[in-house]
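Reminder: ligand-aware prediction takes two inputs, not one.
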Amino acid sequence: MAKKQNKERSSITKVRGIIQRIFLFVTLLLGLRHIMPGRESTGGAFDVFCPMGGIETFFRYITTGETLKTTNLLNFAVLIGVIGVSLLSGRSFCGWMCPLGTLQDMFAGWARRLSSGGKRHIRGKQSKAKFPMELPPKIDKYARYLKYVVLLVVLIASMWTVYPPLREICPARAVFSFQLTPLLASVLLTFIITSLLIKRFWCKYLCPLGAFLAITNKFAPLRVTIDKNNCTSCGRCETECPVDIPAIPDNMRSLECIQCLECVETCAVEDTVVLKLG
Ligand code: SF4
Ligand code: SF4
Ligand code: SF4
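Here is what comes back for the chain with iron/sulfur cluster:
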């Protein structure tokens, strides 16, 4: 099989990195805007830009016509946008846009560099760096269900709360709202430490928004496919997967896939892992 070395493929990671950083930058601006002096500059809570806020306030809105405090109809608009992207391309929001996902990728990259003595990682090669590490497969397998439990708890809690249930422990607010309470500061610290130790810890195990969007991976028309006739089971694709999906060729509709296309870029066998519509 011919080796894939073309420039188009090596540019996927670069394009993704640029798009991720744009969303990260815009989110930082939104957070900063909220704490700028002047009444008109605050323009409501930072929470209103969060798609998860739309899920949290949904029950209250359909039963009373009002939203939970610190949320408003903008949360629904953002949520509808994220759902639209997901219906087309699965959890691509997680792989390309979510600023929390981007930060976790950045922390994982820094941890890898620091714990490998500054050695450059070679794409497709098993990393010798100590961090980020993976949980033992059995623990990892069951721990990934935790985020569905979190989603369920949030949905149930949202029927009785006045504020969004996650508000005081949300890592997005901890990072971007610039209004740290002691509790949010400890969430921020935990987020940083876990992201350095384990790739996308929050995404894999805890995030209710990721859990909510996961089902779209099962039917989204734009998706990564693998031609198993070409696959040599070399495992290269798995070395770069940000969410550590095991046996990628057998799990192409995994609920965990964030459609980052790292496997498309890493597979060395021509036309084996491709992005396909339909
Ligand atoms: S799982 Fe949650 S935190 Fe992770 S990228 Fe998706 S929405 Fe963002
Ligand atoms: S399976 Fe491929 S597209 Fe999905 S998360 Fe892993 S590397 Fe990204
Ligand atoms: S799909 Fe993955 S396992 Fe198969 S040849 Fe490509 S990199 Fe190797």
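Residues 224, 240-243, 245, 248, 257-263 surround iron/sulfur cluster (ligand 2) (CB under 6 Å). The chain has two domains: 7-216, 217-277. We will return to this case in the review session.
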